[in-house]
Write a structure and sequence with these properties.
Layout lengths: L6 E3 L9 E3 H6 L1 E8 L5 H11 L22 H13 L2 E6 L2 E6 L8 H7 L5 E7 L6 H12 L4 E6 L8 H12 L3 E3 L1 E4 L7 E4 L4 E4 L12 E2 L8 H5 L1 H17 L5 H5 L4 E5 L8 H11 L6 E2 L4 E2 L7 E9 L8 E9 L2 E2 L4 E3 L4 E3 L5 E4 L2 E4 L2 E2 L4 E6 L8 E3 L16 E7 L5 H14 L3 E5 L5 E5 L3 H14 L3 E5 L4 E7 L4 H10 L4 E3 L5 E5 L2 H10 L3 E4 L5
Parallel strand pairs: 3-5, 3-6, 6-7, 7-13, 8-13
Antiparallel strand pairs: 1-2, 4-5, 9-10, 10-11, 11-12, 14-15, 16-17, 16-25, 17-24, 18-23, 19-20, 19-25, 21-22, 26-28, 26-29, 27-28, 27-31, 30-32, 30-33, 31-32
The structure holds guanosine-5',3'-tetraphosphate.
Guanosine-5',3'-tetraphosphate binds next to helix 2.
Length: 547
């Protein structure tokens, strides 16, 4: 590995960081995602982080890319929302000496797979939890994915201005339901009607909440020692005594912050606040830039790739189509893993084994996108794509690498897809192929009769696919229901050859190939899946395509 000290001109954002070494550029990047159950406050928190970062001037500038529940059957609305979500796919801004890249994750459960894939490109995560609702379903699912990869996680408990659960009860709930080991780095003083502010254990400061004037946050008051009697002058005797008791309990019950444990995904710091009221957000951001990791090494099938390596490498984690409805253009989002990505330089598209150059790679900022000459590890660049890329593709300076960690999970809904216009079979095949490359849904081909089955995470996608096939490819399709409970990727163990043969013969009508040609078992019920697993202990049934 070569560690460079060569100087680069930083061309991103006409930055004030005129020249900086490659290593300094890496060290100042923080690439993360915010995840939450819908309505916990992810969009609001994102916006407030941008406000503090000076990236936007007023609240409301970031449009929500939420797909509201009322829009479930309105695919035009979905398309409109997808359009908006391009703009918010990556929100980069500078804060203090750091360059922050927030990767947007759709909250809607029908787009959970998009979120899972985006999580392969983040170096850390902030989980937003609603103080009244506690840990919700979608949060649990997303956190499970983060935990599979030991992603460092910070928890932000939001909406403290509302009545909610007791802070200690919530911390318990977070530990139990998410399997976390928490360490509170801030603690609320009261809640809801009695909410007075927070004590920042990280910076040993007090910040008081001024509900009458939400835009004016009190200056932080340094308070090294909360036993100092003057605490009562700020929050009154009763609250001061309660806070002292609570902080004592916090320090007794919870481990102190251990950065190594946080970075290893073994300890999760917790902050409290109210994103809507700008409250507790700055504490979160200030601690975040100090503790959150810079771009991390990433596993490829061949070896571990370090960001500090000289040679460029990166992978596609998201593809966005229909940037311009008049042209069938797509934007492939690449996370840079190592080296520098330079405009107009030929790079190896590993899967296709061909060199490609990009004349206008885009970088994304909260309020604009711009063409960049050089990008660094941790950055996301958007490349105009005419159909070369699919999710998970690797680009390198020349080495053959395959980055792991962009798995497919079992879809929730399955339907046969039929051609409704025999004259347009080619267009249909091409359309399905490209939409699958984008990761809109998964395609399975049944072993027995070659019929094609589309699997999606949410029912919405069937309408999206039908609409896009017609409008973008001139093809028509119909669907037919198919009863599948779960898709499992099947792997024969070496010792079980005879078993495997027996399995493939007996279960032939439930077997299919995914788009990569991997064998998949489409179980029709939880019961039959369990029976099959019991009957064939020599066969491994995997919940995702990467095992
Ligand atoms: P999401 O992206 O996680 O889905 O949530 P979002 O930020 O859109 O927030 C969901 C709702 O919760 C919004 O209200 C938002 O204003 C509110 N909210 C966010 N943070 C706080 C907070 O700290 N305190 C309180 N009291 N409310 C908060 P909405 O009525 O659904 O939408 P809107 O009309 O306000 O946009």
């Amino acid at each position: 590995m070569i560690l460079r000290s060569k100087k680069f001109n930083n061309c991103q954002n006409g930055s004030t960081f005129a020249t900086m070494s490659f290593l300094e550029e890496i060290a100042r990047r923080r690439t993360f995602g915010i995840i939450s159950h819908p309505d916990a406050g992810k969009t609001t928190l994102t916006e407030k982080l941008l406000l503090f970062g000076g990236a936007i001037q007023e609240a409301g500038a970031v449009k929500s890319n939420k797909i509201k529940k009322s829009a479930t059957s309105d695919f035009m609305e979905i398309e409109r929302q997808r359009g908006i979500s391009v703009a918010t796919s990556v929100l980069a801004f500078h804060y203090k000496d750091k360059k922050i890249n927030i990767l947007d994750t759709p909250g809607h459960k029908d787009f959970a797979e998009d979120t899972f894939r985006t999580l392969t490109a983040v170096d850390s995560v902030i989980v937003v939890i609603d103080v009244a609702k506690g840990v919700e379903e979608q949060t649990k699912k997303l956190v499970e994915v983060c935990r599979m990869r030991n992603i460092p996680i910070i928890v932000f408990i939001n909406k403290l201005d509302r009545e909610g659960k007791d802070a200690f009860d919530l911390l318990d709930e977070v530990e139990q339901k998410l399997g976390f080991t928490v360490t509170p780095l801030s603690f609320p003083i009261g809640m809801g009607y009695d909410f007075q502010g927070i004590y920042n254990l990280w910076g040993k400061r007090l910040r008081l909440f001024n509900e009458a004037n939400k835009t004016r946050i009190s200056d932080a008051i340094d308070f090294d020692n909360i036993n100092d009697p003057s605490l009562s002058d700020h929050i009154g005797d009763t609250a001061a005594n309660l806070l002292r008791e609570e902080i004592e309990l916090v320090t007794e019950v919870y481990p102190s912050f251990d950065r190594e444990a946080y970075l290893a995904g073994q300890q999760q710091p917790v902050f409290f606040g109210s994103a809507l009221n700008n409250f507790g957000v700055q504490e979160l951001l200030d601690a975040f830039i100090e503790i959150a990791p810079q771009p991390l090494p990433k596993h490829s099938a061949e070896r571990l790739v370090d960001p500090k390596e000289d040679a460029f490498s990166g992978f596609v984690f998201k593809i966005h189509a229909n940037m311009d409805p008049k042209h069938r253009d797509r934007l492939a989002f690449i996370k840079i893993v190592s080296g520098t990505f330079t405009r107009n330089t030929p790079y190896l598209h590993v899967r296709q084994n061909k060199k490609l150059k990009f004349s206008s790679p885009n970088a994304f900022f909260a309020d604009r996108k711009e063409v960049v000459a050089v990008s660094y590890p941790g950055d996301i660049v958007g490349l105009h794509d005419t159909g070369n890329f699919k999710i998970g593709d690797t680009l390198t300076a020349g080495e053959t690498l395959h980055f792991s960690g962009v798995p497919s999970f079992s879809p929730e809904h399955f339907r046969y897809i039929n051609n409704a216009d025999p004259m347009k079979a080619k267009q249909l095949a091409k359309g399905i192929d490209q939409l699958m490359d984008e990761g809109v849904a998964q395609l399975f081909t049944l072993d027995l009769n070659g019929r094609k089955v589309i699997g999606t995470v949410g029912a919405l996608q069937f309408e999206v696919i039908q609409y896009r096939l017609e409008h973008e490819y001139g093809a028509k399709c119909t669907y037919e229901n198919l009863n599948v409970f779960k898709a499992c990727w099947v792997e024969a163990q070496e010792s079980g050859d005879a078993d495997f043969k027996n399995f493939t013969q007996t279960k032939a009508k439930f077997l299919a190939k995914d788009k990569e040609g991997q064998l998949v078992f489409l179980a029709d019920s939880a019961f039959s899946l369990q029976m099959t697993k019991d009957k064939y202990p020599q066969i491994a049934f995997h919940a995702s395509s990467e095992f």
